Hints:
- It contains 23 helices and 54 strands.
- The protein is α+β, with helices and mostly antiparallel strands.
- The protein has four domains: 60-393, Alpha-Beta Barrel (7-stranded beta/alpha barrel); 525-644 and 915-932, Golgi alpha-mannosidase II (Immunoglobulin-like); 696-910, Distorted Sandwich (Beta-galactosidase, Chain A, domain 5), CATH 2.70.98; 947-1052, Sandwich (Immunoglobulin-like), CATH 2.60.40.
- Strands 24-30-31-32-33-44-39-38-35-36 form a ten-stranded antiparallel beta sheet. Strands 25, 26, 27, 28, 29, 34, 37, 40 and 41 form a nine-stranded antiparallel beta sheet that branches.
- A hairpin with a 4-residue loop joins strand 35 and strand 36.
- Pfam families: Alpha-mann_mid, Glyco_hydro38C2, Glyco_hydro_38C, Glyco_hydro_38N.
- This is Alpha-mannosidase.
- GO terms for molecular function: alpha-mannosidase activity; carbohydrate binding; metal ion binding.
Amino acid sequence: MGMKIKPLIFLIFILLSICTQTDVVDAKHNNIGINNQQQQQQQQQQQQQQQSYNSNDDNINVYLIAHSHCDVGWIETYNNYYQENVTHILSNVMPYLIKDQSKRFVWAEIVYFERWWNDQTSMMQATVRQLVQNGQLEFVGGGYAMNDEALTHYQAILNQNTMGHQFLLSTFGVTPVVGWQIDPFGPSTMTAQLFKLMGFKYHVLNRVDDRTKHFYDMETTALFTIEGSGGLITNRSFEFVWYPSPNYDAYESDFSIFAHILDNHYNPPQNCWPNITDPANGYCTGFDFEAGGSGNPTINDTNIAERAEVLVEIIRTRAGYYRHNNLLLPFGNDFRYQDAAIMFDNMDKLIEYINANSSYGVTIQYSTASEYFEAVDSSTTPNEFPINHGQDFYTVTNCVTSYYQQYGTCVEYWSGYYSSMPLLKQSIRQSDSLLRSAEVLFSLGTSVYDARHNIINEYQCYQVLNQHRNISSILTHHDAIPGTARTAVRANYMEMLYQAQNDTLDMLPQVVGQIMADKSVEQGYNASSQLVADLKDGQILVISVTNSLAWSRVEYLPIQAGQQNYAVFDYDQNPVPSQTVQNIASKQWTLYFQVNVAAIGISSYFIVAVGDLTQDTLTHEDKLRISSLLGGPNKPIQDIIISQRSVSEKVTFSMLTIGNNLFNLEFQANKKNNGIMELVGYQDLVQGITLPLSQQLIEYYALDDDVYEFRPYNPIPLAATSPQVYLTEGPLVQQVTIVYSNNASQVYTVFNETTLNSGSGAQESQYFLVENTVAVGWNKEISMRSNTSVNNGRTFYSNNGLEAMKREYGTKFNDTTPWSMIAGNYYPSINMAMIQDSQNELVILNRQSMASSSQAPGSLEVLLIRRDNFTEPATGQDMDDTSTVTFSHRILFGEKSSCELIRTPHSLVHENPLLPMFAQLDESKTIQDYADNHKVFFQPLDAGQQFPANLHLLTLTRQWLDNPSILLRLVNIYEVGQNSKYSQPSTISVSSIFNQFNISQVDETTASGNAIIENQVNLPLVVTLNPIEIKTFIMDFESQKDQDDIHLFKINQ
């Protein structure tokens, strides 16, 4: 993605920090010069300050980084970009590197490079290998894509980097050491943390708050003043030592990465100045030769002296921002070097001219990123740089003069993309959850391979999984999950997602069938719950429920069903209570029943269709008929039960209550909003108190917003049009459905206590579910706001996927405009947002990334949807999102220590739902016949054991086709201080708990598996993890059974 700025940007802002010689003039203002005398004085001061940091050699060493930023979809689709742009870039750059060993080039997006590599001849591949070996071609970042940081789940970041890093390791034998996140819209601590775990030493960032990068002072050349702007220049803190995780800091002495913020942007150097007659449009001249135009003239004998002066001026200015005499100077842009000749040939002339004139005091060389950082390392020590402890860089802003002229503030906060295009965000998270389940099942299925009845085409299954990994990796791109690409590109993303999911769902039945095979194998599995709805009276369906988490789970499984009655039985033919509930909007029925599934195991349940019975009761004849379908040991027919149908009844009460053994939810009609029913109270039955808890849908009006920026104003409750309320009661599930209008509704669901407890600690009765379905009109943005008596002072916590990030409400740079106060205090939430005081806590858990905020004391809200017909200049489109999305929120509320104990396991359970597989029994077979010939439960861990409650099996993946090894990742999910019991080091004997498998040849590796930390770890494998710690292993993993019958990994092509 390019600059993504309005055409009316006042480029003087770039001038203020790049082109004039900037320095601190007094303690109050960061003034800049406007005439030659002032510029000369400031340049002298800057050079004097620079010498205090530099070595005796005050010559500026410029490391010119030739690069091309290639979005994996934005204006064009991924495929179009590859075919029309990327192939030309790589094919045109290589000859220049081959011809001139002084030239360098860096590349980031491996999804493109791998595809290009596979299209090359063996001769070209050998040549490129030599370029990599020579250090002329460096891979930075090295993931499949340059992932978004605010919204992408850490599991997906690990996956996409593993894909890229494994290609680089197997193809070139290299491991990246430099992060290159130059375009994502704000740096996250999580990405820095993961890069450290991947073995990176350095991290290049770019997009941070504009007001920290540049000076704005109307006493000089700016049209307005921003107090405190230009802090990165003033403090020379564009480079710093980043300790991204306070949890790692608690037990590891130096969990840090050296970070570098680009002082301008990733484009070639340029010089800008104001246009007096048109202040909104400045003049620029620079060195983006491929962009062309009068602002980027080619170099010739006539202009080389003048152009060299311009470049040296830029270099001297920017060198003053750093604490040494080395300057990283980007020389690239979006899809540059399609015409490599014009880029290299013109810069070659300037390099030769400047280097030959010692009076400039500047030496320029083509460089890789690592060469620059090695130079910094050799001339400085870490204690010379500022330290960042656990702070990220949200929310990113742009300063645009046209906004200042219109609204009195230059700022546009880029907090809108946290929630833009929510259907895409939701689909990505669902796809990643499915991929993780499939990876676990495939790893287990191929490790318990039974030669007596092999139905797994392992080659085909692997190809499906690997393609799903590829698509998941592409969707981490910083214009994909944010929803900032053009409409056609987003549609292409969705097509790729749906294809990957459908192929995986088509592949999984054979894997589950193989795992559950005994005397015979079930070959009729299907992933579609439509089989339940289509079941006819007397027919039987087996549902094999798979669990991808390493804890046992006891939950109410929701299955799409028909209007008829059902009888549900477990694998021992015991009757299971069940309930069917009708959705008001769709009129479809959902069957709920309790399931108990072992850690990373499978449990089978049987559903018998018994027809549409009068008053949901069974006659003696009905019971005899159902009993005959069991076929097993005689059980008392009076024990046979059928599902209770819960019809949602329209109610006109002014108050109503639903609840379970732990809490009640109180609802009351709001007379100020046409009598809409709203949540108003929470009765904590354990503590015996009632806590204020209200929820509303809030409507913001949009002020020319787009997919990036967020300028809301005038928040009011969403108006209810002819509101309706429906109450659903039953033995398992209770619901209140609130309909605002035809395109907005809320469903509150409370679950009764299960008969057994989940090993995860996340019980069904501990939370209530809120499902918001919202699709309203243009220029409106809708949030769900919860109001409580929690004394949080408008401080709340969002999370980076793994760690809670403290967010304190405040005014930034004295910008008190109403929309800035709202948007500037919105932050990204990957799966959790919460408020707390010393006693109570409110937690909202999401299944997708979205924006969150605390706009008032005791308040917590999440931004659901955004609509606006304003045309965004970079894409030339408005927020044309007409999708209707249902958001699923799991809400925890009450005593703080209780919520802190369970919020993390609840989050993992919420975003990793149980995955059922369905198969219809032959009508001549009974349930006992089926159980005699198939496994009806699968427990891969020792004696039904599970992982400790604070350890999560993050990854169990058969990563390679031609290698039998498993990639294993473990993570301690509790943070330091979160819970007295579980915020501790936790130990697991992997060999013991997986005692049905032979574990051997274990290496501990970096997080992407591309470098060994400890070779041949002692066996049996015992692992200890500190809070939030992630460890990665590669190991051989096969069944302990008779090896004549069990094979590790047999490829069937």
